[in-house]
Structures are given as C-alpha cells and as structure tokens.
Amino acid sequence: MVHFPPPRRQMVGPGRTRCCGPPGAAPAMNCRAEVLEVSVEGRQVEEAMLAVLHTVLLHRSTGKFHYKKEGTYSIGTVGTQDVDCDFIDFAYVRVSSEELDRALRKAVGEFKDALRGSGSDGMGQISLEFYQKKKSRWPFSDECIPWELWTIKVNVVNLANEQERQICREKVGEKLCEKIINIVEVMNRHEYLPKMPTQSEVDNVFDTSLKDVQPYLYKISYQITDSLGTSVTTTMRRLIKDTLAL
Amino acid sequence: MDTDLSSQDRKDLDKFIKFFALKTVQVIVQARLGEKICTRSSSSPTGSDWFNLAIKDIPEVTHEAKKALAGQLPAVGRSMCVEISLKTSEGDSMELELWCLEMNEKCDKEIKVSYTVYNRLSLLLKSLLAITRVTPAYRLSRKQGHEYVILYRIYFGEVQLSGLGEGFQTVRVGTVGTPVGTITLSCAYRINLAFMSTRAGEDNGAVYPSVEDSQEVCTSSFSTSPPSQLSSSRLSYQPAALGVGSADMGYPVLFAGGLHAAHPHQLIGPGKEGGVPPVPSQPAHGTQADQERMCTPLDGVHYSAATPSSSEDTETVSNSSEGKCGSPHDLLETIFVRKVGAFVNKPINQVTMANLDIPFAMFAPKNVELEDNDPMVNPPDSPETESPLQGSLHSEGSSGSSTGNTHDDFVMIDFKPAFSKDDILPMDLGTFYREFQNPPQLSSLSIDIGAQSMAEDLDSLPEKLAVHEKNVKEFDAFVETLQ
Predict the structure, then answer these.
(1) For residue A17, is it within any domain?
(2) Would you place residue B436 in the very low, low, confident or very high pLDDT band (cuts 50, 70, 90)?
(3) Is residue A22 a part of any domain in this protein?
(4) pLDDT at A170
(5) Do A91 and B133 lie within an 8 Å CB cutoff?
(6) What's the pLDDT tens digit per position in A96-149?
(7) Which GO molecular function annotations are given, in alphabetical order (chain A) (predicted)?
(8) Nearest C-alpha neighbor of B178 from the set B114, B264, B263, B258
(9) For residues B78 and B157, what is the distance between their CA atoms, to the nearest angstrom?
(10) Residue A79 is nearest to which of B39, B47, B220, comparing CB atoms?
(11) Do residue A181 and residue B134 have CB atoms under 8 angstroms apart?
(12) Which of A170, B94, B412, B461 could be stapled to B220 by a disulfide with Cβ–Cβ 3.0 to 4.6 Å?
C-alpha cells in the first residue's frame, strides 16, 4: 500500500466563474476544453454518450480517500467492467460503481429526451465539466472553477432501412473507437490536475458522496439546438449535492 | 544520470515499473480472453491492489511475464512486448497486435516518484483498459472459439514489428516521465486481415483474378451483434491483391473467421502450443461467443508459452507452410458472402477446387455449391400435375411402419407417451400413435386419379358443361333460395 504524504496547499490555478452561473457560459480562461462530435441514430444516442462520459470519468475517478491521523491518506480501489453496446458495434470500460452509472444514465436520458422533443432538429450537445470549489466568505456563495470541459456534439440522423442501420452500427462503432483514442491522448498529456487536497478541502475537489469511488467534482449540462439553429438551454443538472447554501 | 534520486526513491521506482509491467501484461491478456471483465471497486484499500486499480492476477500470465523479464526491467533498448496473434483451427496463424512497453532516455528529474509517477502510472493503466477495447483484435477475441483462438506471447528485448503486415497502425496509449527515463506504452496493430497462407503441393499454377480494391477487410465487419444478426453483419470479404502482403507471407487467402461454420470441428491438439488441450466439437451457430470458448482450466484462454522454443514454434507455423510451396501463386480461395435475405447471407465458393485440401476447408459447404445448385436462387421445379395434397401425405403409404421417416441424422428411440398405460388394451398408446402416424392414402386421392393428365381433364370438360347447362334452371332456383 502506498501512503501519500500530506498534500501541500496550493493556489487554485484556472480562471473563475460563478457556481450555478448562466448555463452555457464560455469556459473560463485556463480551463482545458475538448470537443468531440458524433453523428448517431436516435437509438444510439444513449450508448454513445455513456461510452464517452464513462471513459472520461474512468480517468477522472480515484478510489475513496481515507485520511489518517498524521495527515497521510490511503486510496481505495477502483474496479472496472466491460459494457457491450446493443445498438452500436462497440464495447467500453467503465468504473464499477452503480451510483455513478445511475447518475450518468439519468443525465443522458434527459438529454436524449430533450433531443427528441419538439423544436429540435436532432442537434445538441452534452457537456461534462470538472471543477473545483473555492469557498468564499459570507455573503458570497462558493465559486466553481472549471478546470476541464468535455463537450460532445451530437447530430441525430434518421435512416431509411435496415441495411443503412447496419452500416451505421459499424460506422458509429469505429467513430467511437477514434473518440476513445482521442480522450486517452488528452488524458495522457498530464496537464493541469487539482492538487491532492487536505482532509478539510477534499470536498472542494472530489465528489465524496459515492460510496465506492471518488470522481473529481463534475457537473453535466446539455443544450439543444432548435430548428432555427440557435441554442436553447433547457436544463442545468447538478449531479452533486451542494452542501453549502446561503 | 540517476544520482539525484535517493535510494529509497530508486527502489520505489523500480518496484513501480516492475509491477506496472506485470499489470500491463495482465490487462492486455485479460482483454483478449474473449469474455467481459468485471472487478469490484472497494472503498477500503486492501493493500494488494497496485495502482489503486482492481486488476486480477492470472497466475500463469504473471509467471510467463516474470519469465520473460527474467529479473530485468524495461529500459532503453530493452522493451517488454506482448504479441497477440490469432490461430485458426487449420493451423494458420496471424499476428494481430504488438503491445510495447518501452523506456526512452528522456528523464524528468523533478517529478515525485512515490506520488506523481505512481498516480500517472495508474492513469496509464486506465488508458490501457480503455484502449484494449478499441483495437480490432478485441472484437475478434470476443468471438474466438471453434474457428480460431487468440494467443499471446511475451518477449523482452527489441521490438519486432515485421509480423504485422503492411500498413499496420499504431496507437499510443500514453507516457509517464520518470527520473530515469520516460515510459511509453503503445500498440501496433494489423489492419490488413486478409491473410496469407499456402498449402503444400498445390502448385496448379492457377491464378485467379484478384478482386479490385481490396484491402478493406475487416475491422468494421466483425460485429458484436447477437448471434441472430451475426450473419448479416458479415459483409463481403475481398482478398488482397495478389502479391501484396508482408514479406514473410506468400499468398492471399481469405480470412473468413466465423463465417457459416456449419460443421463443428476440433481445434488443434496440444502439439504445437504448450499445454493447450483438445476440445469437444460444438456447433457454431446460435451460441453466444462466450459459450463457444474452449473449456480450459482458465476458462477459454489459450496460451502459448513464452519460452524461446515455443515462440519459434509460433514462427514456424506461419513460415513453414510458405517454405513448402515454391510457386508464387498458389491456390487462391475466395469466399464471398451473398445476401439472399434480410439477415441471411449465403457463402458461395466461386472457385471450384480441384481438390479438397484447401485452406479453411471446413468453412466451405460439403458440396461445392455453385449458384446453379443453390435452392435459394433456383427453386426446385414444381411438379406439373401434382395434386395439392400430394406433398402433405406420406406418399409411400407405409402403414404400420414404425420407423417413420428414416434419416441418417435421426436416432430412433422407443416412443413412450406420457400418462399412458399399456395393461388394459392390447394396443398401447405408443403403438397406436405409431401405426396411425402414417395413415394410408384416401382412395380418391390416390396416385391414379392424381396422375390424370391435364389433357384428359380438358377433354371431359365439354361434357360436364353440357350437363350443367341442362340443369341451369335448377341452379337458378337454388340460388334464389339462398337470397
């Protein structure tokens, strides 16, 4: 078992934006932003989104931290499992955490429903943002400072016959393979990551609400493009419990 | 220079690299087992999960990896390589991928060993987990079973890429800088799956015209669809043009993995590869990929020993066949898949083989079916004057026959109907059923009458019409009563 030394305090690097700010606001300075685009059939939306989001979160989740008296901490173990897609010729690996899977499925389900809704021409985007919280003094609310933003732009296509659908299964599978390779490439650049927090600050960096794994604090939001081509923000979902309120 | 590194850090770093190498091998081999992997997260650290990841250790794999490393660590010029290859039941083999764990000289002196390096190695392992599922060999490995198996080989030293064919692609999984060098993990994988094989003695000199355009075999053609859709996803395969291929392979043959293997067949015995037991035949159709795996002590993994002797065997398998045949144009088998229905494909051997000792013979139907014989294309002619009921009755009229339809594939067993007693009546239910299962023909539907020619029917028509015309008033009256 590797014990980690007490982490050093560090000034937060990236630029700032308010928590619960206007959805769809441009990412702050120094926030790493990656954009992926996919064209899928309607029934493939969920699996494609889950594949990408789970792959990102696999890299952005650690085991649960257990702090010890002298300030060192040990880290739990992250399990993984294979997931086969039903509508795409594709398989991916996700973190073995039912809570995390449920949270992602809920967000992706809402995104899919919104895509199907009226006023949509089948185009939209779903964003996964990793952020740090910076506590502010009363009466100011905490700041949420994003440090990485993943945006997946989705274009839903309608196919006419079974043969086209079969080809689409395979093509989307190949595209997702490319996306996974892109994600891994970004992850392995070893660019900015929040410093490991002290026990008192762990909730500012990690989502400690899950019982088996500990992803970095994240939030998922989506936008649907209506038929006029303008962005219509529908919902901002908070997937972590906000422990502070004024 | 690593003089700046404390001895404790150096020890830690060596340990990290060693266990990272072992875990890398485990992840790669487990990803090619052909089954879905699932490990549990644990909030309490167990102390034995290196890099905070739940990766099981298959003992044989660890043993092979340690044997290959022989106490050394990856260093500059000394890479740890895991070769993944495919071996068909015919004995043909093909290298699919080569995973390389390398070290280069670029050092990062500032990095903290026990903290940053460790965490980055953990991240790299996660990336490896993700990448092992996106290369073409993953889908091949999920479907291994009767037609082919996936093998691995670990070696240490110089990277050998020659077995991957032309135009192989490389994907970099990631890098981690350390004070003694930068660790790089990458994968080179074959994209040209139309592979080359030869058969001894078949130097008939026939040169079959190569199909245009095609290096496009496959990655997209291997699908993870459920078995019912499997046949529709197998698009037509086209062989590589003659003469194209890796230097050590000769002649184009189609790789038709899993294509309508209608005949169960044995896999190779343990002769060549260390410790691979023979397996019972199983039908290929309609079974899930994970049920098609061989039953080995390790649930379907086929291992080739990493010892030098068996690795030579692996090379020999692929090289010996080309050594036997000198002609540059050997027998070319082309299997095309033709769509005959929504989810049905029909393999056609477009080439008539002079003899049956052909590659992938077991994929070919027993009788070389040309299109003319294909019932889907040319339905059998319906007999001209057959009574419509003819076909539904057993025309042989074998009453009392207890065998019914005899067919080589059927095994006769005693028919014991449930809930029937045979003590009261002289005839029990089973006998009754058998006797009257094939009742005799009705005389009105006998062959004599059925075989009456059309001409005779036509001749008798005018007489019948005359009779009916006489009775037309009766018919009219009858119709009026109905209204």
Answers:
(1) no
(2) confident
(3) no
(4) 94
(5) yes
(6) 999 999 999 999 999 999 888 865 678 899 999 999 998 887 788 888 999 999
(7) protein kinase binding
(8) B114
(9) 4
(10) B39
(11) yes
(12) A170
Is the model's pLDDT at B449 over the cut of 80?
no
pLDDT at B311 exceeding the cut of 80 = no
Tell me if A187 and B41 make a contact (CB, 8 A cut-off): no
Q: How far apart are CA B67 and CA B298, in angstroms?
A: 19
The tally of domains found in chain A comes to: 1
Greater confidence (B3 vs B445) lies with B445
Whether residue B127 contacts residue A59, with contact meaning beta carbons closer than 8 Å, is answered with yes
Mean pLDDT confidence for A175-200: 92
B23, B126, B234: best to mutate for the A interface, most A CBs within 10 A:
B126
**Has residue A244 been placed in a domain?**
no
Query: What is the DSSP secondary structure assignment for residue B392, as one 8-state letter?
Result: G
Q: How confident is the model at residue B87 (pLDDT cuts 50, 70, 90)?
A: very high
Kindly state the average pLDDT of the residues B54-58.
94
Q: In the Cβ-directed half-sphere of A113, how many Cα atoms lie within 13 Å?
A: 8
> What residues in B contact A162, CB-CB < 8 Å?
342
Question: Residue B220 and residue A183: Cβ atoms within 8 Å?
Answer: no
Residues of B with Cβ-Cβ distance to A177 under 8 angstroms: 134-135
Least confidently predicted of B137-141, B199-203, B419-423: B199-203
Could you give the residue ranges of the DSSP H alpha helices within A93-219?
98-116, 162-187, 202-205
Among left, alpha and beta (phi > 0; psi -120 to 50; other), residue B319 is alpha
Could you tell me if B134 lies within 8 Å of chain A, comparing CB atoms? yes
Is there a domain that residue B408 lies in?
no
Q: Which domain holds residue A85?
A: 32-235
Contacts of A183 in chain B (CB under 8 A): 130
Q: What is the dihedral of CA B334, B339, B344, B345, to 10 degrees?
A: 0
**pLDDT number for residue A73:** 87
Nearest to A78 among B41, B46, B225 (CB): B41
**Domain at B112, CATH number:** 3.30.900.10
* Residue among B45, B49, B138 minimizing CB distance to A91: B138
Q: Is the pLDDT of residue A177 over 80?
A: yes
Q: For the segment B353-400, what is each residue's pLDDT rounded down to a tens digit?
A: 444 455 655 555 554 444 444 445 455 444 444 444 443 344 333 444
- Least CB-CB distance to B114: which of A2, A171, A177? A2
| Residue B125 in domain | yes
A63 contacts B43? CB cut-off 8 A: yes
- Quick one: CA torsion of B221, B227, B231, B237, rounded to 10 degrees? 30
Three-class DSSP labels, B17-55: HHHHHHHHHHHHHHHCCCCCCECCCECCCCCCCHHHECC
pLDDT (0 to 100) of residue B115: 85
- Nearest CB among A58, A66, A76 relative to B126 is that of A58
Q: What is the ipTM of this complex?
A: 0.84
Residue B255 lies in a domain: no
Query: Is residue B254 within 8 Å of residue B360, measured between CB atoms?
Result: yes
pLDDT of residue B385: 44
Pair B24, B99: CB distance under 8 Å: yes
Q: Is it the case that residue B279 has pLDDT exceeding 80?
A: no
Distance, in angstroms, between A166 CA and closest chain B CA? 7
Q: How many pairs of residues across A and B have Cβ atoms under 8 Å apart?
A: 152
Q: Which domain holds residue B85?
A: 7-189
Q: Which residue matches tokens 């040169």?
A: B207
What percent of chain B has pLDDT above 70?
Answer: 49
